Batch of 4 targets.
Target 1
Amino acid sequence: MFNSGLKKKNIELNSALELLKERISVLENENNRAHAILDSMVEGVIAVDKDTRVLSLNPTAEKIFNTTRENALARIFLEVFPNNDIAEVIALVLNKGKFVSRELSLVWPVQRVFQVNASPIFESGAVNGCLLVIHDITEIRRLETMRRDFVANVSHELKTPLTSIKGFVETLLEGALDDKENSVTFLKIINNHAERLNTLINDLLDLSHIESKEIILKKDKFALSSLVDEVILGFRSQAKKKGVEIKTELPHALEVIADRSKIEQVLTNLINNAVKYNKEKGSVRIYSEQFPDKTKIIIEDSGSGIPPKDIPRIFERFYRVDKARSRELGGTGLGLSIVKHIIELHSGFVGVESTEGLGSKFWFTIPR
Ligand code: ADP
């Protein structure tokens, strides 16, 4: 009798133990799932208690604040993350028990812009902590600024020749038309400005076409030296006027696989610059270097060179070392960014080495 009672109790205990094990396993699974979600989030997530002690943080948060879980856990938020703006957001959430969203700039450990969303954590109806979700929006803000700058630049570039055209047309209409000699001069100036507008719009169309993801390269195998010879032919008179000598040292047998007309545009833009920014009686040398995986083409000039501070930005749209000089020479500031885009479409690279006053070496690579 006594034995069977004990047996029953034992069975009851065993099944309670099984149930407990099952519950623990369910909880463990849930916990693992929650951790997996947190660990894979691109947003930084930090939870703090009501004294702002760090309860948990995910790997993205560790990365953003250049810290580790071991270092951060159980410590006061401001001790680990010396950022007053975020601490202020946490204080607001803990005090008011309401969701707060703010855009904050972080200067340490890196300069970035974050969207910080903070929610209260409730326990038995009272605020017991705060959950921060930190979203890095630096890239979005950078692209927005770039787009704004681009629109401003295009408007400015279009406005300058248009203002001149309008001015000269008005002068002609107000009577200068009767002055034969001056009116021809004015018409020539108008023509130059119209030409400038045309070049600018063509460059903009090229750029937008190249930047659009729909572009399909028509790749062929062709001899590079004959393409370079064709391009040089177009610069003969411009180079002759300046006394600039263009030398090509490309092997006749050198063939590349690429979109011929696009590479023609790259060569045209680079050789144009090499002549344009050259000194009187200067020289341009075009040669290649062969690597197992790529062909490198170098366009070397004996021109004005580029100051080191301008080199990192030289391939940006509308970036010019000397705006007035570029305009005077018929430049749009878009040539090099077109070059960069075309080469990147070919999975190649572009670059420049330059010494002020001595000249520049612009190069690009085409994978073999
Ligand atoms: P641009 O139409 O003004 O020539 P690019 O995009 O082709 O526009 O070039 C951007 C700027 O880079 C130029 O305005 C010029 O200041 C500089 N640059 C380009 N190529 C050369 C070169 N070979 N020598 C010196 N400066 C150059």
Target 2
Amino acid sequence: MASGLFRKVLIANRGEIALRVICACRDLGIPTVAVYSEADRNSLPVRFADQAICIGPARSARSYLDIPSIISAAEITNVDAIHPGYGFLSENAGFAEVCRDSGIKFIGPKPEVISSMGIKERARAIMKDYGVPILPGSPGVLSGPEEAEELAEKIGYPIILKASAGGGGRGMRIVNERSELANMLSQAQQEAGASFTSADVYLEKYIGAPRHIEFQLLADEHGNVEILGERECSIQRRHQKLLEESPSPALRPEVRERVSAKLKEAIKAIGYSNAGTVEFLMDEKGDLYFIEVNARIQVEHPVTEAVTGVDLVKAQILIAAGQTLPEILGGPIVPRGHAIECRINAEHPVTFAPSPGRITGLSLPGGIGIRVDTHAYQDGIIPPYYDSLVAKLIAHGRDRTEAIQRMKRALDLFVIEGIHTSIPLHKRILNEQDFVDGNFDTNFIKRWM
Ligand code: MV4
């Protein structure tokens, strides 16, 4: 390892996040390898990486999810580390293990930690042990309808059934009364068994109109943990986030401090290392309840980068190379101002129908307080096979009002022709009084459309 870092890093991903990782590697002076599917042959990550290798056809199962193809590419190009980005193999403990067995550093948590955070009721139990608030619920996996009925009676309806190996909203059932419970439980177990690695289901008190608030953290391999504030992610549709911001307009400083302190201890005890996100629901009283851990860099990480000034992807790489957080951060984290991210998707702004195709015209906004993370270029193609994210537009200001003003100005100056995008939708959201007032929850889009 020349310079004590990595010799070369392979990026097991595509699109804007592949470019984002290339940028961090360039800033560190580390050469990169892009892997790509046949659909991404002409993409910017392929152009800007030092080397590029085709790993298969368009379908992700045979390219970006094909572990043997990716490991072969890593061995041929003689890399010593792999960055998984988000999605695809980023939280695949088996992949992290294959990397370790192949002598390649997986830029993420240890495989055992990825596995244990992937078992949701176990993550819940660990958080409870360290004093992180959780919702009333089952102590572990439900043994059957009798246990479920007894617990639900004690907690009070409505309750929610969740798949142990689920997450991101899949495999959940809301139960409003006792008469529905046994049936719903067997449905949830069946669905979990068919969709995930396990049919296990657990139970929690259901919050009908929560806010979704998540804490960003960094943890090194030497037991140091830093919490980098939170992101408000309640503006979403069908579990797809549309707009994120930091800080949350709803989080009381006292709650932020109390939860951050508890989280720090829990993350330390788990042996977690990497960037990570801990998701919470906020109830109408403003209290937070843990729901799950995301053991990866997330789409919305630039919002935290804007307010903290920390390069989270660079930090991931330095952590994986064995550096300590004090070395990486060089001092205390002092959040500054307010940041908002709008996800610009290739989809119809009203129907949300996917809108892949050729970008025939493109003009990116810029100016003070604006960042654009994108793999889009004039005449480039957005293929139909992957998620529809085209660009992330991030606005930073001294306060929320200034961030909103800058975001509106940047949306007005953002031109994408040839495909439909969510730009018009974001303009409408930013003009909505309830949004401006910070008065919203996860039902905002549904209620409004
Ligand atoms: C909940 C909930 C209400 N009560 N849990 C959805 C994604 C998954 N990570 C957890 N989810 C939820 N869990 C309890 N006990 C409501 C949701 C939920 C949700 C959470 C965050 C963001 C958007 C959401 C949309 C619908 C439901």
Target 3
Amino acid sequence: MDVTAHGRTDVGRQRERNEDALLVRTRVFAVADGMGGHRAGEVASATALGPLEALDAATFADEDAARTALVEAVLAANRAVATRAQDEPDLEGMGTTLTAVLVQGGTAHVAHVGDSRAYLHRDGRLLQLTDDHTLVQALVDQGRITSDQARVHNSRSVITRAVGVGAELEVDVLAVPLEPGDRLLLCSDGLSGVVDDAGIASVLAAHPDGDAAAAALVDVANAAGGPDNVTVLLLEA
Ligand code: MG
């Protein structure tokens, strides 16, 4: 199954630089949200996408092989970002989220680290596929705060897992058997941090055209104040 991709990235209304990055190829797609001083965040997100590009031209014997290759590419991204952070003093401490999709046959393999998200929009319903690797999500999981409290919590931007900050990295992976009409949405927290799931779902429902939907999602984040860089990548099966 082929998917059609509609990607947008925007600096937002309050930041001077865009540290998000996105990758759009034929079968490989990703969103990365970099962090670090000066230009380090931009370097981190761009560097992390490099190892994923090579997957686009690869062939895989089966779904297990595709999934393994996707995880290996994320681990290679981790090494690439960590190496640059070590070698270049300006880049010390940088890191990035990474949410990536490899489409193989009729399956979307999703790999995920950090607080960018993947959602599935199917039959008018929006399902969050990924768990945020954040301090506030841990508090939600423990029942100490609600999701609505998490959205406005002072520590909401603290992530507990990132690409490029350590030698070891645990990568979440999942497989989504695609159905015709499915929409997969990858986004940075510049969208999901300011627009709740109901808001995202209503924008998707209102825009059957993928390009218009992607543009409208950026617009709604900016209309809500645009506090952060916002990146959306809409994949349509
Ligand atoms: Mg962000």
Target 4
Amino acid sequence: MKSVFQSGLLAGKGALVTGGGSGIGAGLAKRLAEQGAKVMLIGRTQEKLDTIAKEITEAGGVAKTFACDVRKYDLVEKAIAETASSFGSLDVLVNSAAGNFLSPAATLSANGFRAVIDIDLCGTFNASRAAFEALSASRGSIVNITATQAHVATPLQCHAGAAKAGIEKLTRDLALEWGRFGIRVNAIAPGPIEGTEGMSRLAPGDAESSLKKRVPLGRYGTIFEIAESLTYLVSPAGAYITGATLLIDGGTSLLGPGPFLDMMGM
Ligand code: COA
Ligand code: NAP
């Protein structure tokens, strides 16, 4: 009898997840593997990648790792080539690698701003560009992880907001240019997600309970909820969707920057 890993929606597909060594990226990689995809995990820290790859393989899936910085185009290109050659094809690219921290714009250094733009926006372009040929061969798809800061003016995060807004624009531009090559390009904009590095950086300590009270659905989202949306976008159910950003934030962005202002005591 075939295991769930061999008979899932993505059986036989090859996937690459940047930022796959932790948090949301790790959860997305695990869910892709559960749906039958063979998954390449990318990040800077080999130990983190190894931990997630081990969890996937011990559960019966297939995972490999390639430690690199998404800011280094030549290394990202090698990771993509290795994915396509080891798995037979690259069908799904997920750009989840990102950096963020709280900083007032007035004291943020130019290098701090650039570091976040480089990782989030340039990193997303690097992986997408490097994957173009493989994805056009497989008629595959890209999913970029953005954030509500792309649209909602948010205190202390001008760097991340600008980077994520850039990624959403890149998503639409690549969708337009690459549709004719059979490549779909979409994004997911999560709201606050439980148990992640992102939320421990942005809403530490008491800020968490204050933010949770303001979320219209009354709670943080789960990594699994983001993963299910990814499955939808990359599976046959999403075959006519391109250039879209799925907002999965429990209604948080409907309130504008209010919750963030409260959280920061502003
Ligand atoms: N506040 C203000 N500036 C900060 C900062 C903070 N908390 N953390 C880093 N910076 C600045 C640094 O001072 C530096 O600028 P400088 O050279 O002018 O001093 C610049 O950012 C780059 O820092 P560096 O540590 O060299 O960057 P890096 O490329 O190694 O790391 C970061 C990138 C800064 C985004 C780091 O936080 C990171 O690796 N994050 C990954 C995990 C993460 O953020 N997860 C949440 C995802 S939402
Ligand atoms: P996370 O665990 O810190 O995930 C980010 C990952 O990116 C890490 O595994 C990190 O590993 C990797 N990374 C960072 N810089 C990199 C670089 N230069 N090159 C390669 N890999 C790099 O944080 P998370 O909270 O789960 O966030 C995941 C994604 O979801 C991000 O895109 C984030 O903006 C988005 N998001 C999160 C939330 C939330 O509530 N957490 C909300 C909205 C959007 P290394 O440090 O080992 O490289």
